[in-house]
Amino acid sequence: MYSKLKPFGILSLLLLMAFYSLQEIPLVYPTYFPKPVYDFKTNPLKRAKVELGRKLFYDPILSRNNSISCSSCHNSNQAFSHAGNSLSKGIEGGIGDRNSPAIFNLAWQKKFMWDGSVVNIDVQALAPINHPKEMGEDINAVVRKLNKSKEYKTLFYRSFGDSLATTERVMKALSQFQLTIVSANSKYDKVKQGKAKFTEAEANGYQLFKNNCSSCHTEPLFSSYEFANNGLPINPELKDYGKWNKTMEPEDKLMFKIPSLRNLSYTYPYMHDGRFQTLNEVLEHYEKGIEKSPTLAKELQNPIVFTANEKEELLSFLKTLNDSVMVSNHEYQKIKK
């Protein structure tokens, strides 16, 4: 009797697995976060697609010589940044044009890259894949490689109902995984939830932050994700003018995307070209290094000066934005076979 029923048990298990894979999953974030700007109606989160995106994110098959993956420049243990590297590093020793930005809380961002040249996360991965010094590959070649893989044929079937890999499906799977990377488990978040309290130094630093930094680094994401000229002198080697490099509009000169202040301990060096190795250097820039120009942010027309003690208190607060839970979350790390 058992042997006759066994095939039906296997079928039931397969159906259950298919249901589990195609099940929509919610984006989990705190109640004090704003509503995400990403339209999940166009690409609802589904477990199978997230897992496919996770697999692709860690797979060097996306690069021309199969040596560089997305994770090479966005390390989960470094808040998905490339800590210690001023500029991104690519295939065959290639050096990119800018510092690799940390990728978390992407569902709240409308534009991507330091210059905002990508306006949809569902196509963002095309930029590094096609960049000659980063992954150096053509997306059509990537798709051909994926369609030759039995493993990926199975994963695409589970995600999309047939085994064919396409550019659109690759991009959407990658964005699905990246959208699930949410940083909301720092000490700051625990304080917001009434589960912890700031020390005296952290509380004083929080007040200094609100008085001097919050207009650009807006709570609770700690960025407005808008663009600003923060007074950095031009790097003579890179000659990077931010948005102006793409638009050539005067008002875009030296305008770069404002990064989040979350996870700063994991994401050094700082700025679009990684010129500052420490946060003390960053604070020194805002006190002594601001270069005036027509597009300089109005908040920086005057230097931001802190006493030595205030600097320590501000840095104490900024440490409360580090999310050790996120950087150690196994769901964000490479799938172990």
Q: Can you give a write-up of this model?
A:
Helices cover 37% and strands 1% of the residues. With 337 residues, it is mostly helical. The chain has 2 domains: 147 residues, Cytochrome c-like domain (Cytochrome Bc1 Complex, Chain D, domain 2); 138 residues, Orthogonal Bundle (Cytochrome Bc1 Complex, Chain D, domain 2). A two-stranded antiparallel ribbon has the order 1-2. The chain is globular and about 60 Å long.
Query: What would the average pLDDT be, to the nearest integer?
Result: 94
Describe the global form.
globular
Order of helices and strands: HHHHHHHHHEHEHHH
Distance between the termini: 35 Å
Structural class: mainly alpha
Portion in helices? 25-40%
CATH superfamily of the largest domain: Cytochrome c-like domain
Task: Provide a count of the helices.
Answer: 13
CATH fold group of the largest domain: Cytochrome Bc1 Complex, Chain D, domain 2
Strand order of the largest sheet: 1-2
Let me know the number of strands.
Answer: 2
The CATH architecture category of the largest domain equals Orthogonal Bundle
Name of the CATH first level of the largest domain: Mainly Alpha
Strand content: under 5%
Structurally, the number of domains stands at 2
Largest sheet: 2 strands, antiparallel
Uncertain ranges: 1-5, 11-16
Defining key terms:
heme, 2 domains, Cytochrome c peroxidase, two-stranded antiparallel sheet, Cytochrome Bc1 Complex, Chain D, domain 2, iron, 37% helix, peroxidase, 337 residues, oxidoreductase, mainly alpha
Per-chain topology:
Layout lengths: L1 H21 L24 H11 L12 H4 L52 H5 L8 H9 L2 H11 L6 H13 L7 H6 L7 H13 L14 E2 L15 H4 L8 E2 L21 H11 L18 H12 L4 H4 L10
